[in-house]
């Protein structure tokens, strides 16, 4: 049994699904991770709406599970991440959770919010019925994910569009 | 620019989206890859229907793109694979294609059908607007995907459900 270390939500923080009002905080936090580019509040709202309306064939399971950790006193977004649930044929029409776009705000580093986020997204995926949760990471982050209970499983390969 | 080698469809074969009648051939082919387990024809039909009805916010783009290569003279499924398109916020509300569940039937090995399938799924993903296509593979298959135009990009991490 793979042991996943339980991480408690620190005092003064909450963890919940992304809502439309999180626009500024989510865009700012994701910008630490990678290029976000020009995303208007309207576009953000449309994507959140889309994420909130996609369900899987087996009942009340969201396909997209975008989460934020917010600082209660200020309402600031401290961290964000997503787990996308894929419907397969293999493993008896099984489900696999893909963790994506994990980012922790620079002023919120060092509080184990990354581990909390991974813990929560993994829990959401497993409770939705996933037989496994996977993610791709930079080699320098392997130790962090091992502490979260993950193990190395393969190599990520990529091809980019020509722009 | 990453050069993707064009692979032509060999004489006597066709490549197309999965249909309900592909039930036996797809289950048999996927069983080479991994555990498929008990999947009835009815369940298969429901999953295919689900895959055929999921679209992305931006217009006429399928979320799921399950393909088969079939042998024309016998109707046999020679190979199968999927590219799942994920809606992100980053990269200006960008799309990423995830290639999954690539399998070539044992009697159809050695005809470059795997490369053809990867080529087709990548093309479908890029034409749908993906800024990149990614997949996870066993280290022993890295050379194959490099020949298909992919490069190593990270480490796949995994956690399994307790059963």
UniProtKB/TrEMBL annotation, chains A, B:
Pathway: Nucleotide-sugar biosynthesis; UDP-N-acetyl-alpha-D-glucosamine biosynthesis; N-acetyl-alpha-D-glucosamine 1-phosphate from alpha-D-glucosamine 6-phosphate (route I): step 1/2. InterPro entries: Acyl_CoA_acyltransferase (IPR016181), GNAT_dom (IPR000182), GNPNAT1-like (IPR039143). It is an enzyme of class 2 (transferase). Residues 13-163 form the N-acetyltransferase domain. Pfam families: Acetyltransf_1. It catalyses: D-glucosamine 6-phosphate + acetyl-CoA = N-acetyl-D-glucosamine 6-phosphate + CoA + H(+). Keywords: Acyltransferase, Transferase. Transmembrane segments: none annotated. The keyword Cell cycle does not apply. It comes from the Eukaryota. GO terms for molecular function: aralkylamine N-acetyltransferase activity; glucosamine 6-phosphate N-acetyltransferase activity. One of its GO terms (biological process) is UDP-N-acetylglucosamine biosynthetic process. PROSITE patterns: GNAT. Its EC number is 2.3.1.4. Belongs to the acetyltransferase family. GNA1 subfamily. This is Glucosamine 6-phosphate N-acetyltransferase. It comes from Vanderwaltozyma polyspora (strain ATCC 22028 / DSM 70294 / BCRC 21397 / CBS 2163 / NBRC 10782 / NRRL Y-8283 / UCD 57-17).
């Amino acid at each position: 049994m793979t042991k996943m270390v339980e991480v408690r939500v620190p005092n003064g923080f909450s963890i919940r699904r992304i809502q439309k009002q999180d626009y500024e905080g989510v865009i700012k936090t994701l910008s630490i991770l990678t290029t976000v580019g020009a995303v208007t509040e309207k576009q953000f709202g449309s994507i959140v709406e889309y994420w909130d309306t996609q369900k899987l064939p087996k009942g009340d399971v969201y396909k997209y599970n975008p989460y934020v950790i917010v600082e209660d006193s200020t309402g600031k977004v401290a961290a964000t991440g997503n787990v996308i649930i894929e419907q397969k044929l293999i493993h008896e029409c099984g489900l696999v959770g893909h963790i994506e776009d994990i980012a922790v705000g620079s002023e919120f580093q060092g509080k184990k919010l990354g581990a909390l986020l991974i813990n929560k997204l993994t829990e959401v995926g497993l409770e939705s019925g996933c037989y496994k949760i996977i993610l791709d990471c930079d080699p320098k982050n392997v130790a962090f994910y091992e502490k979260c209970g993950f193990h190395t499983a393969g190599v990520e390969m990529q091809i980019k569009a020509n722009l």
